[in-house]
């Protein structure tokens, strides 16, 4: 059987049965075409708008398999998408007609409790990593949804529940193993290929396939102080400013957020919020849980909440608390994010207006408290360059029916533009959708003065732009 696979030149390569069998002999993992039984079992992507129908899927079990797959794709000029956790909002971990390199079988995690480090393979999810690190009361800074992939999150920056105390994922990355476009395996660290190491800390999947990450860990948990308070949306004009005022004086041990959405009934959420618009305020304290509960208490005293799930909770439970908001493969999603120095009254007015006039129940208008340790890193120390803003605003367009695509996408763009005009002019690429837009959308505003250096490093490690299904950085000429 011959398989037609899309190429970088816009044509199709014909992969005959002999070539497929040779590939299968060299790969310990899976090599699948659409007719193979295991094809339907490939890990689904998060965004239902971009399910992808690859002509060829390689599911490696280790770095050696990745080398074989990359060499196979390069030698034939195939379009290749790399899927770590598959949580790309822009659908950049999916491909139609090309080759999918799915790292889902590479989900191993190993903790060194004495060195306070953790090594996670490229297909591991945040939940996989937290499960292992929390056995030792440690955390590697990551995200806020346990189903998110470690790889994509980290390569784009990585903001999570301990960000203000311990920084972003990229600020805690110690080394990475990378398979380059030339098929070579490199270690990227401060001492080995330091230019590549710099580029990986926010530059996305432009520079190769990262098969493992090693992070610095910090003592957090297993029990932490957490605030999770739900208010009726109609109380927005009271809740938003009072939350803002509390957050302004919160210590770095606090990382907080506020947002507005609606959720369907679920056994995993309080019945009081089922199918009604609500505002959620959330905060985590990284120190002593009892002390933390005192600091977050004012959040619990705002207005008359619908429900309050606050308390000393297991860190892994907090990490999964927002999983219900973002269920894999069920929501069509188009997001846009931007940064603001502060939640000024004009910003708050806009957020409240957008929160109360969402085009679909599942749209989530959310503001993340930044600052702290994040802003103590220089703007050129990593490609992730936004080191001045104290807040990030994300307009998360989520909906169910394809007939609503145009309406929700247009609304998200308009809402985002309003906040962006009041902000620093930067974007967070992990929370940036691409729909009828180039894969370079948002790249210039995200990287700013770092873009030229990234383009030079791209030219060194991927001069032909083999890895282009990402927030793409064009190699300098």
Structure description:
56% of the residues are buried. The chain has 13 helices and 21 strands. By secondary structure, it is of the alpha+beta class. The two termini are 40 Å apart. The strands form 5 sheets. Strands 14, 15, 16, 17, 18, 19, 20 and 21 form an 8-stranded antiparallel sheet that branches. A 5-stranded antiparallel sheet has the order 7-8-12-10-11. Helix 7 (236-248) crosses helix 10. Strand 10 and strand 11 form a beta hairpin.
**What general outline do the C-alpha atoms trace?**
globular
Helix content: 25-40%
Strand content: 15-25%
Overall average residue pLDDT:
97
Global Rg: 22 Å
Assembly form of the protein: single chain
Number of helices: 13
List keywords for this structure.
5-stranded antiparallel β-sheet; 13 helices; 24% strand; alpha+beta; 477 residues; 21 strands; 8-stranded antiparallel β-sheet
């Amino acid at each position: 059987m011959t398989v037609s696979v899309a190429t970088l030149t816009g044509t199709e390569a014909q992969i005959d049965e002999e070539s497929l069998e040779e590939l299968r002999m060299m790969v310990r993992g899976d090599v699948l075409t659409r007719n193979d039984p295991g094809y339907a079992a490939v890990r689904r992507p998060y965004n239902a708008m971009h399910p992808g129908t690859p002509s060829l899927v390689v599911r490696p079990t280790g770095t050696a398999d990745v080398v074989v797959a990359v060499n196979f794709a390069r030698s034939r000029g195939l379009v290749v998408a790399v899927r770590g956790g598959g949580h790309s909002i822009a659908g950049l971990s999916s491909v139609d007609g090309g080759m999918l390199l799915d790292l889902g079988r590479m989900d191993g995690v190993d903790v060194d409790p004495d060195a306070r480090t953790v090594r996670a393979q490229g297909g591991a999810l945040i939940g996989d990593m937290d499960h292992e690190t929390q056995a030792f009361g440690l955390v590697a800074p990551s995200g806020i949804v346990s189903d998110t992939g470690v790889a994509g999150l980290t390569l784009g920056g990585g903001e999570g529940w301990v960000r203000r105390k311990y920084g972003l994922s990229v600020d805690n990355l110690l080394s990475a193993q990378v398979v380059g476009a030339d098929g070579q395996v490199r270690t990227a660290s401060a001492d080995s290929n330091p230019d590549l190491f710099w580029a990986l800390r926010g530059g996305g999947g432009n520079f190769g396939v990262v098969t493992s990450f090693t992070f610095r860990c910090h003592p957090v948990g297993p029990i932490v102080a957490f605030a999770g308070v739900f208010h009726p949306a109609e109380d927005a004009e009271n809740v938003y400013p009072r939350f803002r005022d509390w957050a302004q004086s919160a210590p770095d041990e606090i990382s907080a957020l506020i947002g507005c959405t609606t959720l369907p009934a679920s056994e995993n959420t309080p019945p009081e919020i089922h199918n009604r618009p609500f505002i959620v305020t959330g905060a985590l304290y990284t120190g002593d849980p009892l002390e933390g509960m005192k600091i977050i208490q004012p959040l619990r005293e705002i207005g008359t909440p619908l429900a309050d799930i606050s308390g000393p909770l297991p860190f892994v439970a907090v990490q999964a608390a927002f999983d219900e908001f973002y269920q894999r493969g069920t929501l069509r999603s188009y997001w846009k994010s931007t940064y603001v120095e502060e939640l000024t009254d004009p910003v708050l007015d806009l957020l409240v207006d957008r929160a109360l006039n969402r085009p679909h129940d599942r749209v989530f208008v959310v503001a993340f408290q930044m600052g702290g340790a994040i802003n103590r890193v220089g703007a050129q120390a990593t490609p992730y360059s936004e080191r001045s803003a104290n807040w990030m605003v994300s307009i998360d367009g989520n909906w169910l029916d394809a007939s609503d695509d145009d309406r929700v996408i247009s609304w998200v763009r308009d809402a985002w533009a309003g906040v962006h005009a009041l902000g620093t002019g930067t974007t967070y690429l992990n929370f940036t959708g691409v729909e009828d837009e180039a894969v370079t959308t948002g790249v210039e505003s995200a990287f700013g003065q770092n873009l030229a250096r990234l383009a030079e490093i791209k030219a060194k490690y991927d001069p032909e732009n083999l890895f282009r299904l990402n927030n793409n950085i064009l190699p300098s000429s």
